[in-house]
Write a structure and sequence with these properties.
By secondary structure, this protein is mostly helical. It folds into 2 domains: 46 residues, no CATH class; 56 residues, no CATH class. It is built from 3 helices and 2 strands, in the order H-H-E-E-H. The chain has a two-stranded antiparallel ribbon. A hairpin with a 5-residue loop joins strand 1 and strand 2. The protein is globular, with a radius of gyration of 16 Å.
Length: 111
Amino acid sequence: MTINIGTRFPAYCTSMGRVLLAELSSERLDGYLGSAELRGFTSRTITQPAALRSIAVPIRDRSGQVVAAVNVSTHASRTTSQQVRRNLLPPLLATAARIEADLATLSVARA
């Protein structure tokens, strides 16, 4: 699957979108899942609401609200989910922390 800059996908079928969905209140999430057509884009697209999981992390602003998400991907045939958690998640969390620190600095500078 080719993904170019600006490509848009529904939140349920991307790890970053799922991070953003995870921050919604139960009512808003139920509303989204009740109205979204969860169709498969690939043979591996998760289309069951109870099975939505991801390896992505949220980016929070100074108030703790999720404003974005970051993810990293690798080809499924080249790594296991355990290797992704062990080798890719720590640097992803560190990257998110650096972005959040930058956001806090920008927020303070603008205040």
